[in-house]
Amino acid sequence: xxxxxxxxxxxxxxxxxxxxxxxxxxxxxxxxxxxxxxxxxxxxxxxxxxxxxxxxxxxxxxxxxxxxxxxxxxxxxxxxxxxxxxxxxxxxxxxxxxxxxxxxxxxxxxxxxxxxxxxxxxxxxxxxxxxxxxxxxxxxxxxxxxxxxxxxxxxxxxx
Amino acid sequence: xxxxxxxxxxxxxxxxxxxxxxxxxxxxxxxxxxxxxxxxxxxxxxxxxxxxxxxxxxxxxxxxxxxxxxxxxxxxxxxxxxxxxxxxxxxxxxxxxxxxxxxxxxxxxxxxxxxxxxxxxxxxxxxxxxxxxxxxxxxxxxxxxxxxxxxxxxxxxxxxxxxxxxxxxxxxxxxxxxxxxxxxxxxxxxxxxxxxxxxxxxxxxxxxxxxxxxxxxxxxxxxxxxxxxxxxxxxxxxxxxxxxxxxxxxxxxxxxxxxxxxxxxxxxxxxxxxxxxxxxxxxxxxxxxxxxxxxxx
Lengths: 159, 297
Description:
heterodimer, A: alpha+beta, four-stranded antiparallel β-sheet, 25% helix, B: 297 residues, three-stranded mixed β-sheet, 51% helix
């Protein structure tokens, strides 16, 4: 694949959850979840089948380079988030080497696609038990208990 | 905190829950479409039906998809969920509501409602029936899953202004009525659910001490309760699983025996449970050992 080609983001079989600074993607076919950081998400959204790698690099503006876009494309392809796979531009180079090179030259965060696994405990830690108000107004109890103040019974609830 | 750190693969619990909730929504709608294509009208219980009451979907960890169907349609429903399209979807199919409720299926169905989910109408129990089911289900599990107590918390906390407590509590036996009140009382005691002004407020302020002891002991357990035959690969785990069952969880035993949580016959219920389960357990165990000796597991 060269820079004049037009990658297309996969749409089918994916559940996408946009977060303020990242995008979470669940692949219903493989039952795998991915977390795209802002840069990777921006590249993925640009993969409309009409925008070339050069044009994508230009979107990131001054200080960016096309290797950064390629790094994102490479990971998107690896994680089956593109309609068709691409051949890595970085064949023969480790990702660490590429990231090091880009990281030094770029002012933009290096694109990262991380695998997500189910966190342990989930809500098990939430109990609404407390010994002071801070425990009700921060941590897992915040926004989940009946009140943000600790009552006489040791619960984040109304007195 | 940015979750896409190179060193980190875990997302925060809330982000994970939110993503899983979106996945579950998609799967619920697909499941309903498949059932309807086979002329079966199912009812979704727990899961998204419970999550609707939460202020934010990120607060609830989605599990499997619980679907109840008319017992007369159960065989066809089993065929639907055994198809390849559902091979990676965890559907727990119920023939009616079995032990979870004593109200007849036609009545529950008649009172059920349709809710919009991603432009698909999803049938759920009416709020009153669903709260009763959530409460009984939580007790059937012996109160082991503290996080699921939030389902009861939010179902009560965010109930409609015209929620009909008589419709919820007075359509079942006095014993089952007390089960529901007890579950709500536990949510009050441990999660701070506000029950002031509820028609059973005084009853709910009086949870038997043994129930509290049982719950606090359960929540301290470091080993999750697992099907015993899935623990056979690890002898230490197996021993823990056996000891977790001896004596049987008294809350669960009472519910299984259709007993009164406020009575004092739990030792009898526990003995009954042991007697009832011993035969099937030994049969499964011998079957498993035989398979293992043949190298089929």
